[in-house]
Write a structure and sequence with these properties.
mainly alpha, Endonuclease Iii, domain 2, Endonuclease III, domain 1, 13 helices, 60% helix, elongated
């Protein structure tokens, strides 16, 4: 495990190597998938187990038809399925999006709940999606952990191996407060651009001096 000073050095290096999503031409941002709280929630629900390009394709098509939870609850199931067909498990997501909309309308007066527990009680919303909403919509700093983030922090040795939920809890504990708001953005970009699942570009890695994986491979 890394010392607190090493954790801070890793984040400092990542923050100087990658911009935030708003500072980049990230397709999620340029296509407005987070431009309203409604779109933020629906977009993250669509994104599970789906690549960004496929999520963007589905979301852009969907938002041409709906802009509120009332719209989403009322749209025909077959039409919704066709609009989001590019995402994984589109049939299941059709059902969960409809159920989520009805729950928000019936139990939350049409407002997206702002606690992790309430968010995770919504159909189709798990821990990662809830943390994204907390961090980017409700400004309650949290670090969402997907496959890229989990791979990166475990390879580097920032946290012990575990489930995504365990990794998220560990990151929340060890991450200095000044880095929490953007940690997810830096870590996911590092995982997608440099510390890839196959053939990671270790020679170009900005945090290689602290990475357990690099040292193991060179031993």
């Amino acid at each position: 495990m890394k010392k607190p000073t090493e954790i801070e050095q890793i984040y400092d290096r990542l923050s100087s190597s990658y911009g935030t999503f708003e500072e980049s031409d990230d397709e999620w941002m340029t296509n407005g998938l987070s431009s309203t709280p409604f779109k933020s929630l629906v977009s993250v629900a669509l994104s599970t187990m789906t690549s960004s390009p496929r999520t963007v394709k589905a979301a852009v098509a969907l938002y041409e038809k709906v802009s509120t939870f009332e719209d989403l609850a009322e749209i025909d199931d077959a039409e919704l399925t066709e609009l989001i067909r590019s995402v994984a498990h589109y049939n299941r997501k059709t059902r969960s999006l409809k159920a989520m909309s009805r729950m928000i309308l019936d139990e939350h007066a049409g407002q997206i709940p702002s606690t992790r527990e309430e968010l995770m009680a919504l159909p189709g919303i798990g821990r990662k999606c809830a943390d994204i909403m907390l961090n980017f919509v409700f400004e309650s700093p949290s670090i969402a952990v997907d496959t890229h983030v989990k791979r990166v922090v475990q390879r580097i040795g920032m946290v012990e191996p575990g489930t995504a939920e365990q990794v998220a809890d560990a990151l929340a504990t060890i991450t200095p407060p000044q880095y929490t708001a953007h940690a997810h953005e830096w870590l996911i970009q590092h995982g997608m651009q440099t510390c890839t699942a196959h053939a990671p570009r270790c020679e170009e890695c900005p945090v290689r001096e602290w990475c357990d994986n690099v040292h193991e491979r060179s031993a």
